[in-house]
Specification:
Chain lengths: 122, 244
Amino acid sequence: MKIYGVALLAFCYLLGKYLGGLLGSLLGINADVGGVGFAMLSLILLNAWLKKKGFLEEETEKGLLFWSSMYIPVVVAMASVLNVKGALSGGWAAVVIGVVVTFGSFALVPVISKVGLKNKKA
Amino acid sequence: MIELIDKNGFVFAFLLVGLIMFISFQVSKRVLFGRIPGVAVAILIGLALATLGGKKGISDIPLFAGMAFLGGSMLRDFTVVATAMGADLSKIKSAGLAGVIALVAGVFVSFFLGVLVAWALGYRDAVELTTIGAGACTYIVGPVTGTALGASTDIIAISVAIGLVKTVVTTIATPLIAQKIGLKNANSALVFGGLLGTSSGVTAGLAATDPKLVPYGALTATFYTGLGCLLCPSVFYLVLQAFF
């Protein structure tokens, strides 16, 4: 049943958020540290394990795939509820700093991607 | 009619986003001849619609209140986690180290680059500089740090604005710059997520570039805000205090 897939996703989501909150409080900050990351890793691992055991039926997978395909529409909706006016009203300082920092980070992508590849070869 | 939509705002949001997607893909194919992907056009329309409202974008207008739920962090994280189905664990393992380096470098560079520009613009106070640098990480790190250090509300507001500018610029610029910075595989997407760190910007930017890259970028970006909240009000603040 499709709901099994959705329930599996919900389980991983909640588990990840719980672990993220736990890590946050261990570090002494009142924030979710890596909740989505833990949720994704648990889904990847559970998914692989269930497949190996033969428990993952096609219908179950479809329940998961539906939500993964809803991701882009959700992001479009998210874009429409961002505080774009606030971003622009922070004055020139905010715009200048925001733009410089973003492009500075962009520039590092090829540099650090190479570091990763070098390590893989070694 | 308006009352009907008011009562069924969430369902109306599905219809609205469906229409935006349809228009975007038609424009991308027929007007732009595929030069800008449909997803990118859709996200741009979303951002444009956001300017019609205020703090919560278009959802500030009661008719479009449902968009806040569809585009809220709960459904965003839920669907992003679902994309992990398409992620390859071996690719994550092989790029793991690069991802961790990218995370630390990302928080470090964003913070100090933000501080440097703020200094050039005339800010000299350690608390103010730290809050601005934290805002250059993400719009959550900024207020968390500012509040912890007792910064004034106008500086906190600027830090939030910086983070928002970063999210918006990342969303718009990622598909345009992707080729130049070699953003084309799981490895570089993991690095990209770690460096930029804004979950909204990273996921939207990668979706507009190549949806297959989304899970990798989202995976590292999710640790960024936490790391920023950890480093900015503590280590980074102490470093700045030594100078100012």
